[in-house]
Design brief:
single chain, 8-stranded mixed β-sheet, alpha+beta, elongated, 12 helices, 436 residues, 5-stranded mixed β-barrel
Length: 436
């Protein structure tokens, strides 16, 4: 039990000597008595030094400074104002603070706190509470998956090849192998290799890296829960996602944006109802007219191969207008989601959901494509559209499908994005211990 919690739970008439330690956060000298505020990770408690009750071993209490870590022994009592206080009889300075300690009330700026997290935790109770809740969420997330009979695996960070996604990678160099290595952008390929090998229902929680910009909702080093469930489709893993979020609501905290209260929408129906445009019949120019100019891009290729990209950009435009809603989008154009199985009755869309909480995506889930020839065609087409040269990793992935990938569905849950929801902050750096 934490020291402060233990102290606050002591009975009203408890006169037994108790020992505590923590950091001194405040000091108030009234001559014959000095009050100090002592803090550990569970909170703060008040202690008092009275000259006539101190043992000789701790008569130098006046030398204690704000920021020092001390160990004290004494008995609890209540002040005239009813504040539970420890009447100190003896103690010692465990570690001295040798620099001026930041003012508890003015504290650090948000930026300085993000860059000096240890000091921020020491002086800011709300930051300490936030990160304790963060740790609770991570623990409960794992416990939920264990109870669902998933196995946790570790596929490694350094990889000899990059992957098929269009994002930029971080590159490093191995002196031993005398070659470049890459920080992974996703563990997907290696997880699927484990599925080919016979493992079922697996997940990994780990760092991924994309060599791109930083914003309030994006960080180049981020944490993903990637999970694969055998003999399942995207609706099965959507159900799993909602049950996971419900578990977090019940076991940790239910935020005001309650992510389990969602509206189910379907891509073509949503665009048609909001814009009057029929995505099936619309021309590229018609689609462009409905796209926010700030996100409008020019895609190369014939209309058949790029139309889905513009359709999704129409949705992205609409999403901005509905950022006050929690939405689960069903169906993603196959030009965007090249690794997913298409709907039997709508071959232009992939069986994929994307989970948005107040305009920000926290998760996507997909029925994985296992058809080798279809996967090869789509990867080659994506490379042409985005001007990418196919690399060895693309070949590895296709070779994997030749061996035979079991029918399965997967999800990718962005943990920082999810933590932003549960910790109710609008800045991704607030939920990262040491952001860049």
């Amino acid at each position: 039990m934490d020291y402060v919690t233990e102290f606050l739970e002591l009975g009203r008439n408890n006169s037994e000597n108790r020992s505590f330690n923590g950091r001194v956060m405040a000091k108030r000298d009234f001559g014959k008595i000095i009050f100090m505020t002592l803090k550990d990770q569970s909170g703060s408690m008040q202690i008092a030094f009275q000259k006539n009750t101190l043992e000789d071993s701790f008569q130098r209490y006046g030398e204690i400074n704000v920021g020092d870590i001390i160990e004290v022994t004494g008995t609890p009592f209540k002040t005239k104002k009813g504040t539970k206080t420890l009447n100190v009889s003896k103690g010692k300075i465990v570690s001295s603070c040798l620099v001026p300690f930041p003012d508890k009330y003015n504290g650090l700026s948000r930026k300085n706190g993000q860059q000096n997290r240890g000091l921020e935790l020491a002086i800011n109770d709300s930051t300490m509470s936030l990160f304790r809740r963060r740790n609770d969420i991570m623990r409960e997330l794992r416990q939920f998956l264990y109870k669902e009979n998933f196995q946790e695996v570790d596929t490694g960070i350094l990889q000899p090849v990059t992957n098929t996604s269009m994002s930029s990678e971080f590159k490093t160099y191995s002196n031993f192998f005398n070659r470049d290595l890459f920080l992974r952008k996703t563990p997907e390929l290696r997880l699927k290799q484990l599925l080919v090998g016979g493992l079922e229902n697996i997940f990994e929680i780990g760092k991924n890296f994309r060599n791109e910009g930083i914003s309030k909702v994006y960080h180049p080093e981020f944490t993903i829960l990637e999970l694969y469930k055998n003999r399942a489709n995207y609706k099965d893993v959507l159900d799993l996602t909602i049950r996971l979020l419900t578990h977090l609501n019940e076991m940790v905290y239910c935020p005001s944006s309650n992510p389990t209260e969602v509206e189910q929408i379907y891509l073509y129906d949503f665009i048609s109802s909001q814009t009057g445009i029929n995505p099936h019949a619309a021309t590229i120019d018609k689609l462009k007219s409905a796209i926010d100019p700030t996100i409008l891009k020019k895609y190369e290729g014939n209309e058949e191969n790029i139309k889905g990209l513009y359709i999704y950009d129409v949705f992205r435009t609409l999403l901005k207008k509905h950022s006050d809603r929690n939405l689960v989008l069903h169906g993603i154009p196959k030009e965007i989601s090249v690794l997913g199985k298409t709907f039997d009755d709508e071959p232009s869309l992939v069986e994929e959901f994307r989970y948005f909480v107040k305009g920000n995506i926290i998760c996507n889930g997909i029925t994985e494509l296992t058809d080798y020839k279809e996967q090869e065609r789509r990867i080659e087409q994506q490379a042409r559209t985005f001007g990418k040269t196919l690399d060895r990793n693309d070949d590895q992935f296709l070779e994997l499908l030749k061996i035979g990938l079991p029918p399965c569905a997967g999800i990718g849950l962005g943990l920082e994005k999810t933590l932003m929801v549960y910790l109710e902050t609008d800045d991704i750096r607030d939920v990262i211990y040491y952001p860049l």
